[in-house]
Amino acid sequence: MKNKKGFTLTELLVVIVLLVSIAGTTIFGIDEIANNAKEKSLNELIKEIELATDLYINDNSVFSKSLLNGDINEKCTRVYVLQNEGYLDIDLKNPVTNERIPGNLCVTSKLNSDGIIIHEFKL
Q1: What are the sequence ranges of the domains in the chain?
Q2: 119 has which bridge partners?
Q3: Chain centroid offset of residue 65 CA
Q4: What is the pLDDT of residue 43?
């Protein structure tokens, strides 16, 4: 009986291929998790901006009364107004691109079919 020491080339190649495939799967999985987290953060930021607009519109009842009475169909509130009035942080960044959100973007407020004021913000 021969004493066999070490591994054969085939055994080493199989182990290397398995390790590379595990590493590749892990890297792509982590990347996907990071992208999902950024998208979730972006959606939460949009909700925060829309909520700030709701507070602003409610605090400035002239706008909400105009919408509810049908005097105007929709109201555009700029992000910089919300920032200057203290409803939003001054330095807002898009979590996906890490770029600053421009203050001149509009949050549109209008009535839905149930007569409730809704706000919509798009980047």
Answers
A1: 10-121
A2: 109
A3: 31
A4: 95
